[in-house]
Amino acid sequence: MSKRSRIILDSKQLNLSIERICYQLIENHNDFSRTVLVGLQPRGVFVAQRIHARLEHLTGKKIQLGWLDITFNRDDHRRHEIPLIPSKTKMDFLVEGKKVVMIDDVLFTGRTIRAGMDALMAFGRPSVIELVVLIDRRFSRHLPIEPNYVGVRIDTIVSEKVEVALVESGGNDTVKLYSPEQE
Amino acid sequence: MSGLSVKHLLGIKYITKEDIELIFQTADNFKQVINRPIKKVPSLRDITIANLFFENSTRTKLSFELAEKRLSADVINFSASASSVTKGETLLDTVNNILAMKVDMVVMRHPLPGAGQFLSKHINAVIVNAGDGTHEHPTQGLLDAYSIREKYGEVKGKKVVIVGDILHSRVALSNIFALQKLGAEVKVCGPATLIPKHVESLGVKYEPDLMKALEWCDVANMLRIQMERQDVKYFPSLREYSLQYGLNKKILDGLRERITIMHPGPINRGVEVTSDVADSTQSIILDQVENGVAIRMAVIYLLAGKIEQEA
Predict the structure, then answer these.
(1) ipTM higher than threshold 0.90
(2) Which residues, 6 or more positions from B172, have their beta carbon under 8 angstroms from its beta carbon?
């Protein structure tokens, strides 16, 4: 099946969105002394790295960044044809009593975030968890989860697919929406 | 990426190199999980696993049980000595009775070679062979190869000698299959009476001289003499075996290369290896035990994906 694609964010818009999210984060977290950033594997990590680099540049402070893999906490193990292959978790700190900013590329059903919060608890009891997403696919949630910081909100239908292609993951800093071709 | 090519883990012989690599890759993640403050993941909350041990085991049974519990599966244990097997029940009846209690996966150790295969033809659950007689002990073969990979970065091109009772050893067979599939070179060493006939047909060479074998290898896997499986005398005495095929610190220090020592346990200290070798910095015996839990978690996790979902 061929697919139509439409650019949601081009390189300039994407970087502006990230910049804005960074300033919003600084507003709420001051110097990040009690805050850690956690990117969700696999693609949230790239967004997290981008935000982390900008935040360290803007604040001049070292900020802790972790990668969290949520494969073992997903609720759909054994419901897939192919097995869920995990990615690497890299958490060199505990989140006990800290403010956690969880970062992912696209928020869709909310199940990934649910699993992410579950996985995070293995590293202690955070005081607060906040959620950053680059793309919020509105009105498609299966769970009562809402982001605190959003790049852009879009309206999509289930059969559509959103692709975030950052330079770090081999793309050209664009976000595309793929729609199935009409018959 | 696709999943495992098999529905059961009956032996290394029946799985592919890609399967082994997938298991290793998954085990890397589980190794990280078991070193966290909270060593448990909820993946297999809805699965029940029966550990059926028709033969004594401490390490393997504990390792499997721990792996299952770390994956949040429900676990039931069964050992032959305390069961109806002693009352004359057949294997199939025993297992079918257990499966009637809605068990999804069976981890089985049995004294007869091929018990796992037999079961897989007659029952519906996923089967993991935890040792069938002198045939295979696949998770041990996997964890040994995984430990070599961890130590050297890769298994390919490494030279591994397996020393001791090859004839009665399921560990040896699973090791040979796993190492060869991953591209390692394997030799066996031990008294001629304890080497299976036609062992060369597996593509391994027999080296009767321990010193030559040790000078050749990167890794020496020292097997235990399995007294319980020997109904006739294969060598004059343990002392004589130990003199010819036992590894002590003096021999180890005299080698040109610094080799790695492995042992599947339980160790007969002073027979196949002396205490100072077993506890030396060249020994990775305790790493093997740790890796055993991660490997078994990976195997169970990946095989659990093959269990049919109830409607």
Answers:
(1) no
(2) B162, B165, B166, B188, B223
